[in-house]
UniProtKB/TrEMBL annotation:
Reaction catalyzed: UDP-alpha-D-glucose + 2 NAD(+) + H2O = UDP-alpha-D-glucuronate + 2 NADH + 3 H(+)
Keywords: NAD, Oxidoreductase
Enzyme Commission number(s): 1.1.1.22
Pfam families documented for this protein: UDPG_MGDP_dh, UDPG_MGDP_dh_C, UDPG_MGDP_dh_N
Annotated family: Belongs to the UDP-glucose/GDP-mannose dehydrogenase family.
Gene3D superfamilies reported in the protein's UniProt record: Cytochrome c1, transmembrane anchor, C-terminal, NAD(P)-binding Rossmann-like Domain
Species assigned in the record: Flavobacterium litorale
Protein's name in the database: UDP-glucose 6-dehydrogenase
Ranges of residues in domain UDP-glucose/GDP-mannose dehydrogenase C-terminal: 333-448
Classification lineage: Bacteria, Pseudomonadati, Bacteroidota, Flavobacteriia, Flavobacteriales
Keyword Oxidoreductase: yes
Pathway named in the protein's UniProt entry: Nucleotide-sugar biosynthesis; UDP-alpha-D-glucuronate biosynthesis; UDP-alpha-D-glucuronate from UDP-alpha-D-glucose: step 1/1
């Protein structure tokens, strides 16, 4: 079966870039991305690609190349479903904030809504592709809804988890390590798998397109994120030990990373991992393990989160301790708010939690981030509900100039590893700060010796 018409439900960080790349690489396929959020769709359609709702290096060019030709953004969900032979579900699957599994399980209400809408609209056979990250065996629930509420048409469910990382999404999509497609093992399932393989084969070598059964595919996504996050928590655990023993975490990371069995990637010690995926997916994994009575498995993975929370908290506590046990009324400059460089995404960013801890200590915080907007920063803080929106605005200011953020500050905290931080005029920053001028590098981006030679009291993670 040759796919000519694709619909993707959900125009977010995954739906937008993945579908833009499919459209860019497959000029014969019409790709329509739909979303309930009309503003988001309007932003994707904005003539000025600086206003796209997702910032990713290279994304604007890809969108420009295909938009209006074979790539469309729309709010007309039903029409797009009706026209498509293949429908990707790429909606959000956040951690549940209510009821059973609150704070752990993935909230599948948006997924279920999509399934019900597809079932209601579909008048001919469809392949439904899970692009969202889902608990293992979700395909069963989707199939159930489709078969019981549909118009008697046939549905094949595939799992095609997305492994892109934010900030490098376009490179990851153009040249992925692998593409994973899970489907039913019977003839019809295999046919559906082949249809999706053919789409990716437009630009990806066949030996990088892995096919499995649905459950392996669903579980592989949670497993991949758990392993990656575990590496960060492992090196962060060692960073604390390095600080006590005179070892340097970068040297330790290099030494172990040269062991080909360990490998050098994902060994950067930091103020803690953030992002919309790691914590959510591990909590989900823990919940699934518990629901099968696998308590040791659940405890094992939960420790990755416990370690990460500790890393964020001890970074804030160290600032307070170093500043003579009080930051009350002191200006602390935050360089970076995004959860990693090259993205405007701030979901679960360590900066939010470090700020919260320092606000408890009555600090005044001035934030500068090259890509994150003021309203996002206040939305993140207000969402915590630890203090009123007015209180947040009294203690936090957001500025669009790093030198202004650092002026008269008692301390600077680096929360994101933006490249530009390395190129600042640090002598000028030093001259305008209160003395002693403290810098807490939560990302190990600056050279400790150089910073100290300029006069800063410099603290880095794991050194
Ligand atoms: P997102 O919040 O950026 O986007 C989801 C979009 O879906 C939103 O715009 C929302 O309005 C829309 N939506 C929700 N319900 C809808 C409905 N019924 N009809 C139409 N639109 C609807 O989320 P995201 O970051 O793109 O993540 C999507 C999924 O992909 C999640 O399961 C996530 O775990 C997974 N994932 C994310 C990343 C990442 O880096 N962000 C990477 C891999 C996988
Ligand atoms: C992650 C997975 O990498 C990706 O495959 C999946 O599809 C979605 O989740 P993402 O969250 O976008 O991607 O970014 P990632 O590069 O994995 O970083 C996650 C967090 O870990 C960031 O806060 C990052 O700063 C931190 N990190 C990463 C470290 O602290 N040290 C490292 O060595 C690597």
């Amino acid at each position: 079966m040759k796919i000519k018409n694709i619909c993707c439900i959900g125009a977010g960080y995954v739906g937008g870039p993945t579908m833009a790349v499919i459209a860019h690489k497959c000029p014969d396929i019409k790709v329509t991305i739909v979303d309930l959020n009309a503003q988001r769709i309007a932003d994707w359609n904005d003539e000025n690609t600086d206003n796209l709702p997702v910032y990713e290096p290279g994304l604007d060019e890809i969108v420009k190349s295909a938009r209006g030709k074979n790539l469309f953004f729309s709010t007309d969900v039903e029409k797009a479903i009706d026209e498509a032979e293949m429908i990707f579900i790429s909606v959000n699957t956040p951690t549940k904030t209510y009821g059973l599994g609150k704070g752990m399980a993935a909230d599948l209400k948006y997924i279920e809504l999509c399934a019900r809408q597809i079932a209601a609209v579909a008048k001919n056979d469809k392949i439904v592709v899970e692009k969202s990250t889902l608990p293992v065996r979700t395909a069963e629930a989707i199939k159930n809804i489709l078969d019981n509420t549909g118009n008697g048409v046939e549905f094949q469910i595939l799992s095609n988890p997305e492994f892109l990382a934010e900030g490098t999404a376009i490179d990851d999509l153009l040249a992925p390590d692998r593409v994973l497609i899970g489907g039913d093992t019977d003839a019809k399932g295999q046919e559906a798998i082949e249809a999706l393989v053919d789409v990716y084969a437009n630009w990806i070598a066949k030996d990088k397109i892995l096919t499995t059964n649905v459950w392996s595919s669903e579980l592989s996504k949670l497993t991949a994120n758990a392993f990656l996050a575990q590496r960060v928590s492992s090196i962060n655990a060692m960073s604390e030990l390095c600080e006590k023993t005179g070892a340097d975490v970068n040297e330790v990371a290099r030494a172990i990373g040269m062991d080909s069995r360990i490998g050098p990637k994902f060994l950067k010690s930091s103020v803690g991992f953030g992002g919309s995926c790691f914590q959510k997916d591990i909590l989900n994994l823990v919940y699934i393990a518990k629901s099968y009575g696998l308590n040791e498995v659940a405890d094992y993975w939960e420790q990755v989160i416990i370690m990460n929370d500790h890393q964020k908290r001890r970074f804030a506590a160290n600032i307070v301790k170093t500043l003579y046990n009080t930051v009350s009324g002191k200006k602390i400059a935050f360089l970076g708010w995004a959860f990693k460089k090259d993205t405007n995404d701030t979901r679960e960013s360590a900066a939010i939690y470090v700020a919260d801890d320092l606000l408890f200590e009555q600090a005044n915080i001035a934030v500068y981030d090259p890509k994150v907007e003021e309203q996002t920063i206040f939305r993140d803080l207000d969402y915590l509900a630890t203090r009123t929106p007015d209180e947040n605005r009294e203690s936090v200011t957001v500025v669009n100039n790093p030198y202004e953020a650092c002026k008269d500050a008692h301390a600077i905290a680096i929360l994101t590893e933006w490249d530009e931080f390395k190129n600042y005029d640090w002598d000028k920053i030093y001259a305008n700060m209160k003395k002693p001028a403290f810098v807490f590098d939560g990302r190990n981006v600056l050279d400790a010796e150089e910073m100290r030679s300029k006069g800063f009291v410099f603290t880095a993670i794991g050194k």
